Amino acid sequence: MCGIAGLIYRDGARNIGAEMTAMLQALKHRGPDSTGFAMYGAPGPSEYIMRFKVAEKEDLGGGTKIHRAIVERKAAVDAVLKDLGVSVLELDEPTEYSLRYRISYDGDLKTLADHIEEVEGAEILSIGNALELIKDLGDAADVSGAYSLGGFTGTHGIGHTRMATESDVDIRSAHPYWAYPYNDIAVVHNGQITNYWLMRRQLEREGQRFVSDCDSELLAVYTAVNLEKGVTLEESLRRSIDEIDGVFTYLITTGNELGMAKDTMAAKPMVLYEADDLVALASEEVAIRAIIPHEIDTTDPYDEEVRVWQA
Description:
The chain has 2 domains: 3-43 and 129-310, Glutamine Phosphoribosylpyrophosphate, subunit 1, domain 1 (4-Layer Sandwich), CATH 3.60.20.10; 44-128, 2-Layer Sandwich (Alpha-Beta Plaits), CATH 3.30.70. It contains 8 helices and 15 strands. The longest helix has 20 residues, at 64-83. The radius of gyration is 18 Å and the shape is globular. The protein has helices at 16-26, 64-83, 109-117, 140-146, 196-205, 215-228, 233-243, 285-289; strands at residues 3-9, 34-40, 47-53, 87-95, 98-104, 123-128, 131-137, 156-162, 177-178, 186-193, 246-253, 257-262, 271-274, 278-282, 306-310.
């Protein structure tokens, strides 16, 4: 079933960490297995935030061997960064298996990402000037608490609550997905893409890389490729309705935009609230009311509807 949510402020940064947590916690019944956040803070010049993991949460029961492997993987990542001339400006370890680096780097993002992913057990969740992607097992309150997201300040974000149906309950299978290796592009999606493998193989022939077998990741990579070719986000969303088969509602974010698209059948729900300063969307109205307790008017986007908002 799963649940998706997003918000964007059009007049400056807010505590979106607390608000995204409240929205996703209200959707816990749609997906209790894992929760993920993609949030956008203040970008720094020539700076990136890199989020990655070096093990799965369930690996920690493997005794001293896995703990030793985690230490070795962290050291290997540090060696890669040093070899590439990356300056580490800040380092946080929210959990034993996940890390957040603020780095200064003027090289190619694909080169950086590829070299880190060559470290056995390392998996990049996101690299971006503004984007920070966090996902883990548990509900929104659990994940937000473990990663100290309650005070995250930014302009916009999207999130996902997952009910595992076709893949494992692990961090790799959790959403959102970053568009590897593009700057600041992430997606959450509710639905199923039926021409996923056809489109994935086409993109792979063009040199794109996928880090999972989840059809949601296709939407992120598809969008990133279009944007790189000079297509606007709105036009990319409109093209997706014609070129992607299946039933889907998805939210896509860039460094300063939040976009939404629904397929022709509009079978997957979406509720929209729009004010002068704020736009909030979710699979159910209860998530929007979690952050706006007063009386509000919401709408249900139509089939094939596309919307884009600017931060």
